[in-house]
Structures are given as structure tokens and as C-alpha cells.
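This is your field. Have a critical look at both lines of this record:
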Amino acid sequence: MNVQNGRMSLKYAVDIVMCLDVTGSMDQTLTNVKNSALSFPNRLAQEMASKRRSISSLRLKVIAFRDFGHCAHDAIMESPFFGVPDDLNAFERTVRELEADGGGDEPESGLEALALAMRSKWETGLDRRRHVIVVFTDASAHPLGDPKQTRAATYTPDAPSTLDELYAQWGHGQSRSALMDNSAKRLLIFAPEAYPWTDIADDWNHTLFFPSDAGEGLKEWEMDEIVATIANSL
């Protein structure tokens, strides 16, 4: 914590993990999501500046997912954390290279992506922290433990076998099984009103759910909601 002009200046650390459905049905939507993701660092900086605050550490990470049961070889992709501004070019390159393809049946491997995001190596220093997972999808998700998913050679290591187990890893209060800092974590879900997203929205703490319709794309107000949620909670 710094002291400037007799006032304490807090240092803020923000980590964002974007879990993006990159199946074929997301083609038009993904374009909007990508454009919004690329504009995100500047928009967040502007929002924080309007509140006379600044972020000392901003890191962005991308997890792209499809369907382990249909295209196991590229069912999930996880980037490292990109520090802003030093790694901004690498983050932008990663986002631009995402392509909507494949997916098979309607449910996708969104829960495996969420589980992987929760296991990220989050920032643990500075005065105040916000660890945010944002999920964008136009589909429901396969149940965890589904043999069509788990038998894939590339299946996510250490993935929980049930939604209840994933819920325990998210944790409430100071749960010992929780993977994330309870005071820092936030989950924003942009998805259809379908399993498991509505269940998560009803039961999980620090979670916001924004229903979306397949093919409509990411609306401008939705990215504004993400920026505002982060800025207002610091």
C-alpha cells in the first residue's frame, strides 16, 4: 500500500479468465466476443480512471472449448496469463486466431472449461484482488463424468466427476475444498437458460447470469456489464 499526499493508495490486481465456446454454431457470435475481448483492457482502464482508481496488475487468459466427445484433439485450449500491457500483443494474437468450428451435438464441454479456469494460478499479492471467470456459450453442457467425454485421450486432467464436486471446488465461505479466494472470485455466465448454467446461477455465490439466445452474438451492454462488475467490486 502506498501513501501519496497523505492518502493511502491501494494497489489492485485483476485476473480475468475468458472461457469461450468456439464450436461452429458460435461463428457469428464469436466475432463479436473476440472484438469485445480485444477492447476489454482499454474499457476497463477507462472505467477505473473514472473512479479515480488504477489497476497495478491486470492479467488476461483465454480458455477455448469445443466437445471432447466429438473433436477430442482440439476440444480445449488454455493460454497462459498475459500481463497488460507487456503481453497485450500476445493476448490479441491468441484471440484473433480463435476459429469457430466443430462441436458435434448441442451440449459442449463448457463445464470442463470452467473447472480448468478455476484451477488457474491466480495473483495472490497486492492490496485488493479480483479473480474473474467469464463464460461465453450458446449451448448447454455435457454432464461431468459423461463417458463420451471422459474416455477422450485429451480429457482435462483432474476434472471433477459431478456438478456437485465442481460446486465444492467453487466453495462457499471459507470452504477448505475451494480452489479460489472467496472474497476475490467472481463468475459471469453468458449462456442459454439451460443445464447447467441455470443451476449454477441459482446455487453458486458471487455469480451473475446473463441469458443469451443462440446466434444473437455478444451485445454491447454485456461487455459493459463485465467491465462495470469488475470496477464496481474493487
